[in-house]
Amino acid sequence: MVKINFRAVEQRFYGRQIFGPLDCTLSGGRIMAVTGKNGSGKSTFLKLAGHLLPPSQGKITVVSDGRELRGEELRRHLAMVTPEMRFYDRLTARENMDFLLGMRGITLDNAVYGELLGRVGLDEQAVCHSYAGDFSTGMKQRLKMAVLLAARADIWLLDEPGANLDEAGRQMTAREVRAAADKGVLVVLATNEPGEEALADERIALAGH
Amino acid sequence: MNVSLWQGIKRMFCKEFVLGLRFKAAWAAMFMFALTTLACVSLALQGGQMEPRLAAALLWVIVFFASMAGADRGFADEDTAGTLLILKLYGGAQPVLLGKMLYSFFLLLVLAVFIVLLFLVLIGVEPVFWGVFILTLVFGVAGIAAAGTLLAALATGARVKNGLFSVLMLPVILPVFLPAVYLTAGALGGSDTALNYLGGMALYDGLLIVGASVLFDYLWYED
User: Fold this and answer.
1) What spatial distance separates the first Cα and last Cα of chain B, rounded to whole Å?
2) Angle subtended at Cα A52 by Cα A47 and Cα A54, rounded to the nearest 5 degrees
3) What is the pLDDT of residues B86-95, one digit of tens each?
4) In sequence order, what are the residues at sequence separation of 6 or more whose Cβ sits closer than 8 angstroms to the Cβ of residue A80?
5) B89·A53 Cβ contact <8 A
6) Domain ranges in chain B?
7) DSSP characters for A118-138?
8) A-contacting residues of B 94-133, CB under 8 Å?
9) pLDDT tens readout for residues A112-124
């Protein structure tokens, strides 16, 4: 079971205190919602949790089965959906997925690819001849969900995963997040959406400074 | 689920190659620079002969600056397009670095062949020692590709980007550039060439690749 421990973590940008000192433990199989007003550091919290950003102070450890994960090994446990994440505009959905997942040694056959697109509500025929750059924002968000599902990661860092999605898309996201947590995935959800907050088992409210 | 290093490098190379074909800005910038420079020099010479040392220096100046028009794009393009985060998330440090380096080497080699063919036709020089000439070209281009890829990664991570790549590139590439000019002059003029310079270039290229490989892990993983 994977755990992320924050110990006396503080974050500052250019001398401005964003949050902290913060102590908390995130556990696999649980959904943690991180809430707070704009600029309170929700997205930063996710990056810190995934070691994609070093903290200004304090220590964050990611432990799986009693062993600390770092570097490449840790990255293999991570999957993320965030507005900052972009696909390669001049590659198709399939090419993007083949490249990104292939870099982790995951190959998608046609059946799995079709099933993934179905799960996230993307029409295979509609996306097969288009570059990802031509997708609508909602379609891109669904594609991010498809990559997340295919990555077989046990830490999901989700920054407003329902953003730009219609009601069916938000329901799909909620369903997949709950199902992943039930399978033992550690889910961190940065959000201010009441519907997404309601999914959470625990909550951290960042006050902002 | 583990991907072998070679498989990762191959995927990275193929991705760069496909994107390069679909978005030709880097190719166009480099080839147009080379073509324009060579056309200007050829017109200025008006059929006159050029001394081998001057011809060698001119050839490497064109190769170097033409590569600068595109070689630093590897990571800058990812940064500009916003794809650096997703690449960091899914790509391991070594496959990303070495895949980009291999693509840069391939791109610069194609560019160098294009420049050399035009150079030989327009400037009217012909190598006496073809073997030395070709090996110098390969080792020189490999050095530019290795140094360019690493420094592009460093410059992308830095907060101050303007001019950083060019400033860092000059001292790093001089140990490749100077023997390359010397050996090319020898190969063009038929004079004695110190072949141990070739060994030195190959060794420095190797050091650049190993150094880049070691340093890049620290850039790629924040812990």
Assistant:
1) 23
2) 90
3) 999 999 999 9
4) A46, A50, A148, A156, A157, A158, A159, B85, B89
5) no
6) 5-220
7) HHHT--HHHHTTSBGGGS-HH
8) 95-96
9) 999 999 999 999 8
- What's the whole-model pTM score? 0.92
Question: What is residue B79's predicted lDDT score, i.e. its pLDDT?
Answer: 87
- Running DSSP on this structure, what letter comes out for residue A185? -
Q: Are B86 and A105 an interchain contact pair (Cβ–Cβ within 8 Å)?
A: no
Task: Quickly count: other Cβ atoms within 10 Å of residue A117's Cβ.
Answer: 22
- In this predicted structure, the answer to whether residue B222 has a pLDDT above a threshold of 80 is no
ipTM of the complex: 0.93
Q: What are the sequence ranges of the domains in chain A?
A: 2-77+153-205
Q: Which residues of A touch B217 (CB under 8 A)?
A: 71
Establish if B23 touches chain A: CB-CB under 8 angstroms. Answer: yes
Which candidate from B8, B18, B222 shows the least CB-CB separation from A91?
A: B18
**CB–CB of A105 and B19 under 8 A?**
no
Chain B contact present for A54, CB below 8 A: yes
Could you tell me if B188 and B128 are in contact, meaning their C-beta atoms sit under 8 angstroms apart? yes
Residues in chain A: 209
Asked if the Cβ–Cβ distance from B89 to A152 is below 8 Å, we say no
CB of A103 within 8 Å of any CB in chain B? yes
Question: Is A84 in Cβ contact with B85 (below 8 Å)?
Answer: yes
Sheet with A31-35, edge to edge strand ranges: A78-81, A155-159, A186-190, A31-35, A202-205
Has domain A2-77+153-205 been given CATH number 3.40.50.880?
Answer: no
